[in-house]
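Q: Structure tokens for this one, please.
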Amino acid sequence: MGRHPQPEIKQRLLDACTDYALEHGLPDRLGPLTQATGSSSRMLIYHFGTRDGLLREILGQARERQLDVFTDLLRVRSDEPYLTTLSRAWSAMTGPRGRPYLRLFGRLHDSAGEPLWPGFREAATTDWLAPLEEGMGSLELATVVLAVIRGLLMDLDATGDTARTDRAWHAFLATIETA
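A: Here is the predicted structure, written as tokens:
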């Protein structure tokens, strides 16, 4: 008779694997994840089925964490103008709090990530439209703001030029404010 699934062990393993992936990225093999969890490859496969199954669950949990953090950053606050909220959100998204998510999900924005998370590119776009629409007052403006955020994040990922992308973001916000 086989072992019965133990969800608390699986969750503990997933938490440790997700923490590892946010700090170091997704590994090409299970070794680093077994070290991060203090477990074995056999136990990871037992709980997650396959390496790709584990990687999908890691990405899913990391995405849930990112949604919690970034959605809170983008939510409307009654005590401040929304452009101030956007300015603060950009700083957090591109700073130490947000960078692990940007690194981890960066590779999923191209077609290479499609096998691990089919439809990620669409989900990664539409996830942020609701809070942006509420803050900007229209879906069209929210779409423009999101396009600028995504473009500057891709630029930052490719170049590492934080100073220039920060200046571009603040110039964009100034343009919106004067429009």
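A few notes: The mean pLDDT is 90. The domain at 7-178 is CATH 1.10.357.10 (Tetracycline Repressor; domain 2).
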